[in-house]
Design brief:
CATH architecture: Orthogonal Bundle
Largest sheet: 3 strands, antiparallel
Structural class: mainly alpha
Protein name: DNA-binding transcriptional regulator, MarR family
CATH topology: Arc Repressor Mutant, subunit A
Number of helices: 6
GO molecular function, one term: DNA-binding transcription factor activity
Pfam family, one: MarR_2
Strand content: 5-15%
Distance between the termini: 26 Å
Helix content: 55-70%
Number of domains: 1
Keywords: DNA-binding
Strand order of the largest sheet: 1-3-2
Radius of gyration: 19 Å
InterPro entries: HTH_MarR-typ (IPR000835), MarR/SlyA-like (IPR039422), WH-like_DNA-bd_sf (IPR036388), WH_DNA-bd_sf (IPR036390)
Length: 160
Amino acid sequence: MDEPRWLDERENRAWRGYRRMRRLLDLELARELMQDAGLSEPDYDVLSDLSETPDQRLRLSELADRMLWSRSRLSHHLTRMQQRGLVTREECPSDGRGAFVVLTPAGRRAIEAAAPGHVDAVRRHLIDLLTPEEIEALGALTHRVVDRLTAGRRTNPAEV
């Protein structure tokens, strides 16, 4: 067995800094989103994904893939969102087993009310701290990692 390629001091500092930053940033953004808009991060993800489609609807399976959630987990979350009037589900006419998740007018109002504050928080806690060059580097880095992690990946995260 090959000897592990341990991180050197510089790599370890970068890795640990990234992990700490990610945890703190996720925590702060989630806290502000809940405090300011009464939405969880998954609520926001569902509503924003739906609001960005032309007909304000997505197949449940496609939404689950986008969120990297199992269909079952998403279905449970959507039930809670339905109870709050943010989304509805409609049967898929071409596939009796499939369903669409549809943004309701209340869901549209919720995402429109939440988005400005959320974008402000993303700016305050990350974007405005970076130079234009750092933003370019961050974009290149994140896309490279995402491409590597999704290459050849099955579409259902529950299967991975």
